[in-house]
Amino acid sequence: RGAGVGGASGERQAMQAHVSIILPVHNAEPWLDECLRSVSQQDFEGTMELSVFNDASKDKSGAIIEKWRVKLEDSGVHVIIGGHNSPSPRGVGYSKNQAVAQSSGSYLCFLDSDDVMMPQRVRLQHEAAVQHPRSIVGCQVRRDPPDSTERYTRWINQLTPTQLLTQVFTSNGPTVIMPTWFCSRAWFSHVGPFDEGGRGVPEDLLFFYEHLRKGGSVIRVDQTLLLYRYHLQAATHSVREATIWSHRVCFLEERALPHWAAFTIWNAGKQGRRLYRSLTAANQRKVVAFCDVDENKIRKGFYCHEDSQERPKPRIPILHFRAARPPFIICVKLDLTGGAFEDNLRSLHLQEGQDFLHFS
């Protein structure tokens, strides 16, 4: 590890911890006190350690960590502090990997430095993870400020157990969000580590996809166990939408489209056409139609793919959704049409996963 904050502080416990809380830190001064207090208030009865990696913070984060190290050690929580003070940070993926590598717990509880855990978080997620060794365990969240991302928060908290696996292609990303992740070290080692590309890399999404490729399951503890903060400094904001889009399209083509000989894209507008153009030529040929409710689009009759190398250029019919045939890839944003879209979809009595998948 680099100079500065230095190597691991405190001797390794003779007994391996049950749970390591994995905490990457970069300039987290405004939130860190509350975050670390929430570590000290956990009601978990087993042994717990906190593994912090300070990624070149230039604020008072280091001093706050040191202050809490004493308090936590006094209350029986072993604290390991690693980090570096290079001019620039190495990124979230690197920091999480380092924090995992220097820790010893059989289970890993991921925590972001701007979030706050409820006292029962470690206990309840540990119980679930013991029952489901090949899973990522998440939880419900409370957003702060409460009105910052209402649709996204509803989605996080209300997905059904089946949807945790079927809605993995949407622009929302992982169906249990990274700051709520809890899993066994053995499973993390089997799937990971995180991509260390740094700023602009959706390391949580890439890890989540790899987890699913390896047959991992997704479990959510249906209690609010995390205060999940929204602010503009969050690392999430550094990832470009186009980067995430291309990862999502590749994952859809790898995981879902091989099972379908033909499919319909639900949305003849911009998003639907963008998806069509992003597909490989082989998958474009599987698109038998677009469907929509917009009479103007349906009246056009077809969509012509002007950039296609094929001759004649493909002309894809545009149908009313009742005239179209499943399976559907749905490129309509959920929860935006006052329930009209959801009513239309329900009226077809289809099974999510088998007859349709959400992509928006």
From TrEMBL:
GO terms for molecular function: tRNA-queuosine(34) galactosyltransferase activity. Residues 20-191 form the Glycosyltransferase 2-like domain. Pfam families: Glycos_transf_2 (PF00535). InterPro entries: Glyco_trans_2-like, Nucleotide-diphossugar_trans. GO terms for biological process: regulation of translation; tRNA modification. It comes from the Eukaryota. Signal peptide: none annotated. GO terms for cellular component: cytoplasm. PANTHER family: GLYCOSYLTRANSFERASE, UDP-GLCNAC:BETAGAL BETA-1,3-N-ACETYLGLUCOSAMINYLTRANSFERASE-LIKE PROTEIN 1. This is UDP-GlcNAc:betaGal beta-1,3-N-acetylglucosaminyltransferase like 1. The gene is B3GNTL1.
